[in-house]
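Quick note —
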Amino acid sequence: MTLRAGLHYDDDFGIGILANVTLRNALLANSRFTMDVVLSENIRGKIAYVYDRGFIPALGVQIAFNRFGTKIYDNCEAITSLTYQDFSVAAFLMSTFSNNYSIGGGIKYENVNCLEDFQTLGIGRFNNNYLHTYVFLDFDNFNRKYKPSKGFKLKSEFRTISRQKEGTQFFDASSVVYAKYDQALKLNDKLGINTTLLIAGTIGPDLDLPYNIYFGGLGENYNNFIFPFLGYRYMELFGRTGAMGRLDFYIEPAKNHFITAKANIGKLEPTIDGLFNESILLDGYGISYGYNSPFGPLEFTLIASTNHSAILSYLSLGFWF
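Predicted structure written out below.
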């Protein structure tokens, strides 16, 4: 058994303290039981049990809870805020290989409770249950977590989502598919490039608010289909179909100190055809100073976009969890 603790701060969720318990070979050899609790204003937690058989598919189960607040924007101005929380139970099959690659699929039952704090848009409050089925493929061979200099990372998923009608009945399902590819390149001992490509789309009828595709913010480990995008605040933009590309060019003038120029472009549209029309091209750019401290990465970024006049900032400290 191991006990761990972690500390993280970012401008999306504030300060969080992580408590982790990991127990190996619990009940079965090659199994792993983990419990994570993040204590913060935006509390969340997860309990998981995974029986690892390597490439041979093995069963895992997970219980998770998330709670956070967010804002809804119109022309860069916050017009209302939402309090979101979910509770889910999932069972899945997963194969792993060489600690870099995992593939699998599963089923998840989820309750979502969402409350509009100021009733500006008439969203009010809803409390719905959803059934998810999903398959995923992940690969990660980055040489380091912060500012990797070699390797690539692929995260992809196909998920169907159906809202519960009554009893065991569900409405017709819609699907969301996405693939996110990150590549790290080392130019020399002091210079490097990190790139990102993303494509995401909704198939079928419109999904409820929590399962839209969102762009904005500069964090990691966002819930559902929320993706970071320079130039906009967390969850500021949403749609059914999106694509983006990003380039980070960094220099390490002294050991563990980084100066990074960042830029991205993208589109977020109601239909896939909208990605190819002459609508507004989303963009954002920024410059950051980062320090790989003993407490984890510290990074401060100034951000702007040609689509608005606001100058944004983003601060994070510690590894993401």
